[in-house]
Design brief:
mainly alpha, 3-stranded antiparallel beta sheet, flat
Length: 524
């Protein structure tokens, strides 16, 4: 192993992306865009004294360099979950399917770790998701067992793959469906316990996966995710197997959470089956004795505004009327909050919307009160006197989120006196324990509040241990042309790199153009 090879292995292991790009050298395209959104050559030139630009333009380390264990460095990058390092190595020509320390292709390593973006990168570079392994499985089958819908989707549909219904033989399609169905019906924890024989309690936590939530369960040295309902639904759609509409509803409410991946997948599939009676089935659920079923119906009606066919959806007016009537009769607070949310997401305002909001302005459950401000104001009309009075009361609510929503709604009406709601916003930013501190800080940074108190608050965010809060503080200072702005962005990077593209990161360059004559003109 040459010195450059050893340095590449060390850089991959340490996650030093700049060094990885530099050491790959001529093996990588200098115009390649790095994780900061800039060409890697630009990044190299901006780092004087490190020899990075010279490395990029010279002979680079081979991307298939092996580490001290004799494994390709791609295996190290995959094991570390470093998506950008994986992509850099693949762009430089690394083989996408080396075996890891267990002898299985590195695609299986990524799949077992639920690193769906790495899985996608490997497949796009040529790794085979349908390769038959020594134990008779395939990377796709293993992912189906693993219960990560995002990982299965990456293995089914990544770029340049043939349609799975065409590329997979019928026997393999049936095996995949049977596997997903078995895990779903048995339950992830129960099946994991059966396979491992473990008697100890399972370690279960909820994790984020591609804008959804899913339980991750570890037991007997093995980890799976409980997204098998979504996996089964996705496979059925991919293979042209029609899932009964009632079964889609059942899969959703099995995990009664609108963010759960099974719920989200069922909601999406029902949205594409209007011609089969999906709307009639779902809207009838508003009379269901189960609050979970009623909540699903309300959530589905809200989501109809955002599906690709929303512009041609023929039931918007009917939905508004249905939701308004429902809002006046629903007794469960969680469902009622969902109904109010769906009603305020409609393209047009319902005539009784404000009256409904006033009705629930003093509801005992804060989840309902959080939806009230959106009922009291619509973008194309000013606040009424009665709505403004209710919002001023809500701006002093015991619940932080209610106060934030009320203050922001008041700030949206230019006729309102702004001192009160601005003070509410600043108090929420000032409170380190508030669950809405970050959201309040973002609004403060973007606002026209130029009081000394607001500026001091933005400066104080630079002393927090939260990188995003520091970035919000720096961005707010840049918008106010504060002289500390350059130093503020340095303070942000003390906690980690600023990922681009990000309008808050770009505000520093805008500040320089406005405040430093030498930065104007030239190359524009």
């Amino acid at each position: 192993m040459t010195d450059r090879d050893a340095r590449l292995a060390a850089a991959v292991r340490a996650g030093d992306l700049r060094e990885v790009h530099a050491l790959l050298g001529a093996g990588a395209d200098p115009g390649t865009v790095g994780d900061d959104g800039l060409p890697v050559l630009c990044t190299a030139v901006a780092a004087p004294g490190q020899g990075m630009a010279e490395a990029l333009l010279g002979a680079g380390a081979p991307p298939d360099t092996v580490d001290a264990r004799g494994l390709p460095v791609l295996c190290t990058a995959v094991a570390a979950g470093n998506t950008e390092a994986v992509r850099a190595l693949l762009r430089a020509g690394a083989a996408p399917d080396p075996a890891d320390g267990s002898g299985f292709p590195v695609l299986c390593t990524a799949g077992a770790a639920f690193e769906h973006r790495i899985v996608e990168a490997l497949v796009e570079a040529g790794a085979d998701p349908d390769r038959v392994l020594p134990d008779g499985t395939t990377p796709l089958l293993r992912a189906v067992e693993g219960g990560s819908a995002a990982t299965v989707t990456a293995l089914l549909w990544s770029r340049d793959l043939q349609d799975p219904a065409l590329r997979l033989p019928e026997q393999e399609r049936e095996r995949l469906l049977a596997t997903a169905r078995h895990w779903y019906e048995a339950g992830a924890e129960a099946e994991l316990r059966r396979r491992t024989g473990a008697k100890s309690p399972a370690n279960t936590r909820t994790v984020d996966e591609e804008w959804c939530d899913v339980e991750q369960i570890t037991l007997g040295g093995r980890t799976v995710r409980a997204g098998h309902g979504a996996v089964l639904t996705d496979l059925e759609a991919a293979f042209g197997v029609p899932t009964p509409l009632t079964e889609l509803v059942a899969r959703a409410v099995r995990h009664p959470d609108p963010r759960h991946v099974d719920w989200v997948e069922s909601r999406f599939r029902l949205g594409g089956r209007l011609d089969e009676g999906a709307r009639e089935l779902v809207t009838a659920l508003r009379h269901h004795p189960s609050a979970d079923h009623r909540r699903f119906a309300a959530d589905w009606l809200r989501a109809c505004q955002f599906y690709p066919n929303a512009a041609t959806y023929p039931h918007h007016e009917d939905d508004r009327g249905l939701l308004a009537a429902w809002a006046e009769t629903e007794t469960d607070a969680v469902v009622l909050a969902e109904v109010l949310w769906a009603l305020t997401e409609q393209v047009e305002e319902h005539p009784r919307l404000e009256a409904i909001g006033l009705r629930y302005a003093d509801h005992p459950d804060p989840r309902v009160r959080r939806r009230v401000p959106d009922c009291l104001w619509w973008s194309d009309r000013p606040l009424t006197a009665e709505a403004a009075r209710a919002l001023r009361t809500l701006a002093h609510d015991a619940d932080d989120e209610v106060r934030l929503e009320a203050a922001l709604t008041l700030l949206g009406d230019e006729r309102e006196i702004r001192d009160g709601p601005r003070a509410v916003l600043r108090d929420l930013v000032r409170d380190p324990h508030s669950p809405v501190r970050g959201g309040a800080a973002e609004f403060l940074a973007d606002s026209d509040d130029r009081t000394p108190d607001a500026t001091e608050l933005l400066l104080s965010l630079l002393d927090t241990d939260d990188r995003l809060l520091r970035l919000v503080g720096a961005y707010g200072l840049a918008r106010r042309d504060h002289p500390y702005t350059p130093r503020a962005y340095v303070r942000v990077e003390e906690l980690g790199p600023i990922h681009r593209p990000d309008h808050r990161a770009n505000a520093l360059a805008d500040w320089h153009r406005r405040n430093e004559p030498s930065s104007r003109g030239g190359n524009g």
